[in-house]
Write a structure and sequence with these properties.
Distance between the termini: 21 Å
CATH topology of the largest domain: Ribosomal Protein S5, domain 2
Structural class: alpha+beta
Shape: globular
Number of strands: 12
Oligomer: single chain
Largest sheet: 8 strands, mixed
Length: about 350
């Protein structure tokens, strides 16, 4: 059992490379940012959890002596408890909690995953469970609580990013294959378009389009996989696919290879920020033109950022709204101003640490 007070936090994230790749078993490169969700708790004498959420004007009360029944869509605070209880976690005492954050909500920066990761870290720490110090376990539990528990279509990228922090290369073709990359990248500018994302709609179209295209090609050549297919093979079988199926799979192949090029650059002793920016721009080209997950407003914010001196910029998250980000280690203030003039809300951010227990001050 932790002390009378407990403060835990987890970061939001940007996806540097690999949007819409994780659920296909491909690799991604994520970066945690220094915007966070924090949970401050004061222990109670009973087994009631109260959660005050002043940022959204909500309050939740959960009595641990009763069955935890879902009362709302995506009832994450309760789903975490159910997942943990199935894993044998016993929470002996309740807490009065305050949940605060500065991650843009419903904007592609993983505010929900950060919340779930922080809540799992909080409850495991409160229970004195050793798994509170295992970032991989927390990431997997968070994926179960957010995605599997509600039969959602997403992958595990966000949960890894929020749990581990820093810059992370994750190979989803192999269980638990990840590598922390050098994180001395300087500043980014996150731009919130203030347009809500269409996560379910985008995921359904992009994910199903890619999987349907692969299935059709594998009927002709069973040796084809998402990891090995070349653009030449894709063009050879183009007549088997609809236009949208071809485009989304083409984008996945290009972006699959961009992830590997970016990893090589990030590991290089002669790291070139301009090369990283070029790779980000090429990634955005595919996401905009073929995956079609960008929006006119986000495109305008990206153009403004590049004109102001950003080395590269792209949409962030599943798309259809939400955020973009610009890599601007030297001109971040000018880039932030340009994004604001284009109608977005700008945040100057750096690479952030993973989920952790913090000091107890509110």
């Amino acid at each position: 059992m932790s002390g009378e007070k407990l403060h835990v936090s987890a970061p939001g994230r940007i996806c540097l490379f690999g949007e819409h790749q994780d659920y296909l078993g491909l690799s991604v490169i994520t970066a945690a940012i220094d915007l966070r969700i924090s949970i401050y708790g004061v222990i109670r004498r009973d087994r009631v959890l109260t959660l005050d959420l002043p940022d959204i004007g909500d309050k939740i009360i959960i009595n641990l002596d009763r069955p935890v029944i879902y009362e709302r869509e995506r009832d994450y605070f309760r789903s975490v408890i159910n997942v943990l209880q199935r894993e044998g976690v016993t929470i002996e005492k309740g807490y009065d909690c305050t949940v605060r954050g500065n991650i843009p909500i419903n904007s592609g920066t993983s505010s929900s995953s950060a919340l779930i990761v922080a809540w799992i870290k909080f409850l495991l720490t409160a229970a004195g469970d050793a798994r509170a110090n295992d970032a991989l376990v927390i990431a997997k539990l968070a994926h179960r609580a957010e995605v599997l528990e509600f039969n959602e279509p997403g992958g595990m990228m966000d949960h890894f990013a929020c749990s581990f922090g820093s810059v992370l290369y994750i190979d989803f073709s192999t269980p638990d294959a990840y590598q922390q990359l050098p994180a001395n990248l300087g500043k980014f500018v996150l731009g919130d378009s203030r347009q809500p994302k269409d996560t379910k709609g985008i995921l359904k179209r992009v994910k199903e389009g890619a999987l349907q295209a692969l299935s059709l090609l594998q009927q002709q050549d069973p040796a084809i996989t998402i990891h090995t297919i070349s653009l030449a093979q894709l063009d050879h079988y183009r007549n088997l696919l609809t236009g949208p199926q071809y485009d989304v799979l083409y984008a996945n192949v290009i972006n699959r290879d961009l992830v590997q090029q970016a990893k090589t650059e990030l590991l290089s002793k002669k790291f070139d920020p301009h090369k990283l920016g070029e790779l980000l721009n090429r990634h955005q080209d595919e996401l905009r033109e073929r995956s079609q997950i960008s929006t006119p407003k986000i495109d305008g914010m990206i153009d403004a950022a590049l004109q102001a001196g950003a080395l590269g910029a792209k949409i962030n998250g599943s798309g259809g709204g939400g955020c973009m980000f610009a890599y601007a280690p030297d001109k971040y203030e000018q880039v932030a101003e340009s994004i604001e003039r284009a109608g977005g809300k700008a945040f100057i951010v750096e690479i952030g640490r993973g989920a952790c227990e913090d000091d107890n001050s509110v």
